[in-house]
Amino acid sequence: MFDTADGLDGTPYQTLLAGRSVAFTVGFGATDPADLVVEVTPGFDYEPVVYTS
Question: Helix (H, G, I), strand (E, B), or coil: what is residue 8?
Fold first, then answer.
C-alpha cells in the first residue's frame, strides 16, 4: 500500500550487498492490534518468517 502523504512509499527495490541492511515503514489497518500476524519472505530462495504481536 502506498500513502505518500503519511510517509508510506512502498517497499524498497534495491539490491543489498552482503552485510548491509535496509529499513522501511509498513502500515496496516487492524481491528485488534494486539492480535497481529505478519509473514515476511525476503525472496524466492528464503523461508518465510512469521511475526506475531
Answer: strand
- DSSP E strands: which ranges in the chain? 37-40, 49-52
Residue 28 neighbours by CB under 8 Å, 6+ apart:
36, 38
Q: 2-51, pLDDT tens digit by residue? A: 677 777 877 788 888 999 998 888 787 889 989 989 898 878 899 999 99
The candidate with the shortest Cα–Cα distance to 38, out of 22, 23, 52, 26, is 52
Nearest to 6 by CA among 29, 39, 40, 38: 29
Grid cell of 38 as nine digits: 505478519
Q: Where are the domains of the chain?
A: 1-53
**Residue in the block written with cell 503519511:** 6
